[in-house]
Amino acid sequence: MASFETVVKILVVEDEAGLRDSIRDYFAEGGNVCETVGDYASALQKINMYRYDCILLDITLPNGSGLDILDALKANHHPDGVLIISAKNSLDDRLQGLDLGADDYLTKPFHLSELKARVMAIVRRKSFNGNREIVFNEITVDLLAKQVLVSGTPVKLTKKEYALLLYFIANKSKVISKNAIAEHLWGDEIDISDNFDFIYSHIKNLRKKLIDAGSGDYIQSAYGMGYKFTDH
Amino acid sequence: MKLLDRYNRVSLLATISMIVIAGIVYYFTISFILTNQVDKDLLVEENEIFDYVSLNHRLPQVFKSDDLKIRFTATPDSTIVRRIADSHFYDDQEHEDEAARMLTSSVRVGTQLYRINITESKVETDYLIRVIFMITLGLIFVLLVVLLLVNRTLMRKLWEPFYETLRQIKLFNLADRNGIHQVDTRIDEFHDLNREVTAMSQRVLQDYQSLKSFTENASHELMTPLAVIVSKLETLMQDSDVTERQGVLIGEAYQTVDRLKKLNRSMLLLSRIENKLMQDAEDIDLRDTVRKKVIEFQELLADKHIVIREDLEPHHIKLNRDLLNIMLNNLLGNAIQHNSPGGRIVVRLTGQQLSFCNTGVPNSLNQQTIFQRFHKSPESEGTGLGLTLVKQICDNYSFGFGYTFADQLHCFTVVFAN
């Protein structure tokens, strides 16, 4: 198992209970710790008492702004990673958030799989041991060289296949929707939605390349919903 | 027809006919007065003759004059009626007939009766009338010229505020928030018109703004519930005992929510572009960007076995990178999505324009409806806002954006300014 994934501790600051619970359910598996708060005051309390690998921060909160929480974090030189989630897809908010030291910015509504992938990327970047490798059983991804090895043998993947593999590993054992995959690979402003059948050929190619290189068959189709990367 | 021309035409016609009528009346009046004058002269002559005869009992000596001839003829006829009538006057010097008035009368000298014929030429009066006629003509001409000039300059000056208001109305655009400005004028009608138009433009702008902010707020408010639905469906997907049937249902619900999400995003994006909230422009190597975009889409191209030909000249352009991205995504995305399997795409970039041409349906798309919001082909599952977005971006940068269909290729062309 990859070392960066042993325990990830996350704080979700989100006033919408439905969304908060979904995020917690999605993250709180495999030993991850996922705490949630729904308002400004409790969020401030939490960040003053505990440290997190990543804080998911909603900007619009009852009685305060998520940007102020970000301010408080940075003022105290806390190293927590911060991912801003906002309903406002405005450049100003995005720039302001990133200027204040947020690591990433995601606009509502988002796919949980995309959120997880982004959080994992932040956690990876923040990890002290400078982990530049992701390991999943016999598959090793060298993040610096952007190379994939199966049992030590390099596998030649296209840019998109590489991104797809990383996305799968970040969301391992999760069903990922075709929409989420398409959006991750081609961006969210692309207005193509031919049932995302074209996703299928990429998945097929990636799967074939991995199996040909001697890896297990980890990519499973999940009925009409999407795909799952799992070893059981 | 312009008001000024129309007015000119009417006023000129009226003026000319008035002057012509006046001229005719004038002519006859003067002619009548002058003839009267000549007749009076004739009567004076006659009187002189009578006086002479009664005093001297013989006929006076007759002198030839330029315009007066007196002739006595002995006549046995005693029934001569005294009358004045039109006649001719033979000018001995000029050797020509002239219009004249002739008085016929009689006088008795002793026992002999004489017929008197006094003829006076009207050549002088004719001349006078001609001069008057010429002066009148000249007057008409001068009057017309003056009238035209006055109309042209004065009317134009008078109507200036009107034209200024009209120009502003023509330029009036809901998207750029400057309404119609007050134009300075002392003419009440134009002042009123302008004030009302100005007030109206303000009202329209206000209504439009509130409508737009309503759309924007509504879209924003939709985002959070949408996020909850998406996350719940995604959580549901993770359930290990989802049956195949349930899975398909969840998948369909998920896709539909995703479409709703995209639609909402596009609407927000559109209103932000309309409000010119994405202003920061940078110098972009368009050829390089287009090439990268094609590479980005190559899997989609390969999936449909579409052959793409790039015909790109170097071109730099200054605009917002996000907007350019949206534009290229939509143009190339459309060219792929609406293409037939095994079709082709031609991307052409010159210093003047960028065009995406693709094969697809065998006939031309409807030029009228194609750029309308939410217009889409029956088989499309897009938002129907793609081309609207591109059009809006082009409008923001004053680029032209058009569609043509030729040689079985549907072409969407962005024409850069200058």
Secondary structure elements and pairings:
The complex is a heterodimer of chains A (232) and B (418).
Chain A: E1 9-13, H1 17-27, E2 33-37, H2 40-49, E3 54-58, E4 60-61, E5 64-65, H3 66-75, E6 81-86, H4 91-99, E7 104-107, H5 112-126, E8 133-136, E9 139-142, E10 147-150, E11 153-155, H6 159-170, E12 175-177, H7 178-186, H8 197-212, E13 219-222, E14 226-229
Parallel strand pairs in A: 1-2, 1-3, 3-6, 6-7
Antiparallel strand pairs in A: 4-5, 8-9, 9-10, 10-11, 12-14, 13-14
Helix pairs in contact in A: 2-3, 6-8
Chain B: H1 3-56, E1 68-74, E2 83-91, E3 96-109, E4 112-121, H2 123-171, H3 188-237, H4 244-274, E5 282-285, H5 286-296, H6 298-303, E6 307-312, E7 316-319, H7 321-337, E8 344-349, E9 353-358, H8 386-396, E10 400-406, E11 409-415
Parallel strand pairs in B: 6-8
Antiparallel strand pairs in B: 1-4, 2-3, 3-4, 5-7, 8-9, 9-11, 10-11
Helix pairs in contact in B: 1-2, 2-3, 3-4, 4-8, 7-8
Q: Can you describe this structure?
A:
The complex is a heterodimer of chains A (about 230) and B (about 425). With about 230 residues, chain A is α/β, with parallel strands linked by helices. Chain A is built from eight helices and 14 strands. Chain A has helices at about 15-25, 40-50, 65-75, 90-100, 110-125, 160-170, 180-185, 195-210, and strands spanning about 10-15, 35, 55-60, 60, 65, 80-85, 105, 135, 140, 145-150, 155, 175, 220, 225-230. In chain A, the strands form four sheets. A five-stranded parallel β-sheet of chain A has the order 2-1-3-6-7, with helices on both faces. In chain A, a hairpin with a 2-residue loop joins strand 10 (about 145-150) and strand 11 (about 155). The two termini of chain A are about 15 Å apart. Chain B is α+β, with helices and mostly antiparallel strands. Chain B has helices at about 5-55, 125-170, 190-235, 245-275, 285-295, 300-305, 320-335, 385-395; strands at about 70-75, 85-90, 95-110, 110-120, 280-285, 305-310, 315-320, 345-350, 355-360, 400-405, 410-415. In chain B, the strands form three sheets. Chain B has a five-stranded mixed β-sheet. The two termini of chain B are about 35 Å apart.
